[in-house]
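Appendix C reproduces, verbatim, an entry submitted by the partner laboratory led by Prof. M.T., so that reviewers can inspect both the input and the predicted structure.
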Amino acid sequence: MKINLAYFPNALSNFVYTNKKIVVKRNFSNTDILNRQNQELIESELRKISHENIVLPFRSYFKNKQYTQITKYIKNTKPILDIKITAKIFQKIIDTIKDIQKIKTNGDIIKFPYKELLIKFTNKKKFPSKITQLIDKYYKNNNENVLSQNDLVSGNILVAKNKLYIIDFEMSALNHYLFDFASFISETLILKPKLINKFIKIANFSKNELIEINELIILQDYLWMNWANYFYNLTNKIIYQEIYNHKKENYENNWFKKYR
């Protein structure tokens, strides 16, 4: 039986369709940069805790070199930036990030491949000294890593009334415990900067943690800047050029330093 699905044209990394019963996501042809085996291992671990704020696909498969995921459609949800963000919502995000971090994983789940992704996006092996120093600090040394979502853009945090849902664990891997907090700030709250101090206060970050969040945001802005340039060269879509310009400006200005 054929199912009629409506196409979402603004998706950046996948074709996304829905009929308001299911959501079907399929990566663009020949542009899949992700470790799908690692993703499925992480999703398997997340299913074990059955967390009320985590939404996972109920079916995933490869076909014609494309990876497809099918997820139940959640009614009446909006991206977090489309609602009034309250202290209660902030606390749910903080608690969910920490709950994910508590999951004990086996040795098969990989560490976030920051340098490998950067090499893929730039086709280079040498980077600005600031970036090289931070890669050594957060990814070369034997840091204790935790399970992380790694891509907390507004569209991956959905809200319906008082319920919150984190979706899309494609980029998930082991990472520094502050990476997801930095991601939420740099990918979502940057668009509502008046809320940043409120989030920092609720999260109760230490002075040293704010310094590390700033460093992780520098790494993130540099990575996603080059991700956007990579996809612009592949697709020639203006949206990627706009993201590149935005991330480049943030990276060059070290915008979060005033919050440290």
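The chain has eight helices and ten strands. Additional entries are available on request from the coordinating office.
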